[in-house]
């Protein structure tokens, strides 16, 4: 792979990581800790939403984020001809 | 059949399985010994990673802690799973591309320095020893209750088993044993969680029972009636800042744990490393989303079956008597009214429950069949032993590979390297056994230290090693030492010398976050003030970033 292409690949990788980490911080640090009290005013099922995010929702989101990363990286690898 | 007989049966059966796998996967070469020949498929590696990572603390202590902390227990849930995202996105693929045996290997080669390698070895040993101490206490608890032997005997049995499959099979033996251990521990956790969910709510799926039944609301009410805060009330035990710091320290610490990172060296390629991270977290999430549900059910059930009961009624509970004998459950009718009362005030509280018994006692409290209780015991042992074996391998490879081979005797033969590795496993087992018999403290708390130390030492140098080409040897060494010293100083000060937490009241468990920030700052500043890394190293970093091919050998001296 030439230098320009490999730099473009790296930039696309960084952008993907950045976007996924924004979601990661949003669900855990922001929604589940910093904004937990206002969110607890809303009910999800029979439990307060902020509490649910901290004990269930954030974990489920994390799993999805990693699989999105793996699948998107596969696409990126194909686009830049790293894997057939 | 009695609980004890069932337990002995299940434990013997599972141990026989581990021994068989250890023998089946015995290895001769160092690649097999340290990285399982790099041929582990992603799903299997995911299960092995999940077992490796879910320790006695996750299985035995975590639900109990959440049960006592309510919302504030979320630090463990989000911390330990959230770290996995960092690991999957920022570390695993690049470390797999690097393709050597240990974390100090990466640090030593990336920072072209044996001093950096040595600092990383010391940090790895520090983290692993702190962590393994917690595992051994877990083994002790399970044995002392379920086999009614004393803790020392139980620990020795456990150590012999671990020594057998790790000395013989190395990483390959450990990997396949951990796959089996994952299956056992997850079944052992889900059966009681699902049974108690069904019992209390009519819904057997713990996650749904937790969200859609009124059990959480009922527990909130019971807690208020007894004078506690609501279960879902945030920051009842810790400040918001402390919750934030502890969560980040656990996340970053998870990503920096040497025995977890090393698992990503065992898969065939970079793509497999990405997917195996996803599988690992999926497997972990099965337990981590059930645990808070179990915590809620157990607390509700325990309060209902013990609070305000007469002494005679409590004495009829077989499980209560047995746990009382281990001193992890205690009753004291302080006001002599013939009833035991649970209150938030230590002066009037008459029931003392150690958080460590929540998971292990749940099946009995809920009156489940004896074989379920035995499965839980086998699961607890699987969790403790799988993590212990992963840690023992890191300890032995730190000494045998990083110190003996890479620093002391680079011309050592394959045979010598594997031999030294096996000797070191034996030595590490003895050390871990000592900690198991003389436990240094509370399981989950001890583990929390290991995370703080991992966060403050490894995470920044690995991240910067991949994402910042300008980070050099001088910066990395200074950063690791600064982060590690600060974090040890604060933890030891607060926990052992009575120092008041002076950083905005952040507790010893959360201070690793600050240690990590210090490490990042010191590394970046010192790197900019000293010469850039040699060109060969910059090219190696360039190459790490592309998933294809192998690293050219000349780039990694």
From TrEMBL, chain A:
The chain crosses the membrane at residues 20-39, 51-71. Keywords: Membrane, Transmembrane, Transmembrane helix. It comes from the Bacteria. Pfam families: DUF4212. Residues 7-82 form the Sodium symporter small subunit domain. This is Sodium symporter small subunit domain-containing protein. It comes from Chroogloeocystis siderophila 5.2 s.c.1.
UniProtKB/TrEMBL annotation, chain B:
CDD domains: SLC5sbd_u4. The chain crosses the membrane at residues 6-25, 75-95, 115-134, 146-167, 179-200, 243-265, 277-298, 371-397, 418-437, 443-464, 476-496, 502-526. The keyword Membrane applies. It holds the Pfam family SSF. Keywords: Cell membrane, Membrane, Transmembrane, Transmembrane helix, Transport. One of its GO terms (molecular function) is transmembrane transporter activity. GO terms for cellular component: plasma membrane. It is found in: Membrane. It is a multi-pass membrane protein. One of its GO terms (biological process) is carboxylic acid transport. Gene3D superfamilies: Sodium/glucose cotransporter (1.20.1730.10). Its main location: membrane. The keyword Membrane applies. PROSITE patterns: NA_SOLUT_SYMP_2, NA_SOLUT_SYMP_3. InterPro entries: Na/Glc_symporter_sf, Na/solute_symporter, Na/solute_symporter_CS, Na/solute_symporter_VC_2705, Sodium:Solute_Symporter. NCBIfam families: Na_symport_lg. Belongs to the sodium:solute symporter (SSF) (TC 2.A.21) family. This is Cation acetate symporter. The lineage of its organism: Bacteria, Bacillati, Cyanobacteriota, Cyanophyceae, Oscillatoriophycideae.
């Amino acid at each position: 792979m030439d230098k320009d292409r490999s730099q473009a690949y790296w930039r696309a990788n960084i952008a993907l990581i950045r976007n996924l980490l924004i979601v990661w911080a949003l669900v855990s640090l922001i929604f589940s800790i910093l904004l937990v009290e206002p969110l607890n005013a809303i009910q999800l099922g029979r439990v307060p939403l902020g509490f649910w995010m901290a004990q269930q929702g954030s974990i489920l989101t994390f799993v999805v984020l990693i699989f999105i990363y793996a699948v998107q990286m596969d696409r990126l690898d194909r686009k830049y001809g790293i894997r057939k | 059949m009695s609980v004890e007989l069932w337990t002995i049966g299940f434990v013997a059966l599972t141990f026989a399985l581990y021994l068989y796998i250890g023998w089946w996967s015995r290895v001769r070469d160092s690649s097999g010994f340290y990285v399982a020949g790099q041929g582990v498929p992603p799903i299997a590696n995911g299960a092995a990673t999940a077992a490796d990572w879910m320790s006695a603390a996750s299985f035995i202590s975590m639900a109990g802690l959440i049960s006592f902390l309510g919302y504030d227990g979320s630090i463990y849930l989000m911390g330990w799973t959230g770290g996995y995202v960092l690991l999957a996105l920022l570390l695993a693929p690049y470390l797999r591309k690097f393709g050597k045996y240990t974390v100090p290997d990466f640090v030593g080669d990336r920072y072209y320095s044996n001093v950096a390698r040595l600092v990383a070895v010391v940090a790895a040993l520090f983290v692993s020893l702190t962590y393994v101490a917690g595992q051994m206490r877990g083994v002790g608890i399970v044995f002392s209750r379920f086999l009614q032997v004393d803790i020392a005997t139980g620990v020795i049995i456990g150590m012999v088993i671990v020594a057998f499959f790790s000395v013989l099979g190395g990483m390959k033996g450990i990997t396949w044993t951990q796959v089996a251990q994952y299956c056992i521990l997850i079944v052992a956790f889900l059966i009681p969680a699902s049974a108690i969910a069904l019992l209390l709510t009519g819904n057997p799926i713990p996650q749904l029972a937790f969200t859609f039944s009124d059990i959480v609301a009922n527990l909130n009410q019971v807690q208020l009636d007894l004078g506690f805060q609501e279960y879902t009330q945030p920051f009842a035990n810790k400040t918001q800042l402390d919750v934030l710091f502890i969560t980040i320290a656990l996340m970053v610490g998870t990503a920096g744990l040497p025995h977890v990172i090393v698992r990503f060296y065992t898969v065939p390629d970079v793509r497999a490393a990405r997917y195996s991270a996803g599988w690992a977290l999926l497997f972990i999430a099965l337990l981590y989303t059930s645990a808070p549900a179990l915590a809620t059910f157990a607390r509700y059930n325990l309060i209902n079956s013990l609070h305000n009961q007469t002494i005679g009624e409590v004495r009829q509970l077989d499980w209560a008597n047995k746990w009382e004998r281990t001193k992890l459950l205690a009753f004291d009718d302080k006001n002599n009214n013939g009833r035991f009362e649970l209150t938030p005030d230590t002066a009037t509280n008459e029931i003392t429950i150690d958080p460590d018994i929540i998971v292990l006692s749940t099946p009995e409290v809920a009156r489940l069949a004896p074989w379920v209780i035995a499965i839980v015991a086998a699961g607890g042992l699987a969790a403790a032993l799988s993590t212990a074996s992963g840690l023992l391998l890191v300890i032995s490879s730190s000494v045998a590979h990083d110190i003996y081979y890479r620093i002391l005797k680079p011309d050592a033969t394959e045979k010598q390297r594997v031999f030294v590795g096996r000797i070191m496993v034996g030595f590490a087992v003895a050390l871990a056994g000592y900690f198991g018999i003389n436990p240094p403290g509370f399981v989950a708390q001890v583990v929390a230290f290991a995370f703080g130390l991992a966060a403050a030492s490894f995470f920044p140098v690995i991240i910067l090693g991949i994402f910042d080409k300008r980070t050099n040897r001088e910066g990395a060494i200074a950063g690791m030492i600064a982060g590690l010293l600060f974090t040890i100083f604060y933890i030891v000060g607060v926990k052992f010398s009575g120092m008041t937490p002076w950083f905005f009241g952040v507790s010893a468990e959360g201070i690793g976050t600050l240690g990590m920030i210090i490490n990042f700052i010191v590394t970046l500043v010192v790197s900019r003030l000293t010469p850039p890394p040699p060109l060969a190293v910059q090219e190696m970093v360039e190459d790490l970033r592309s998933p294809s091919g192998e690293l050219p050998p000349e780039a990694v001296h």
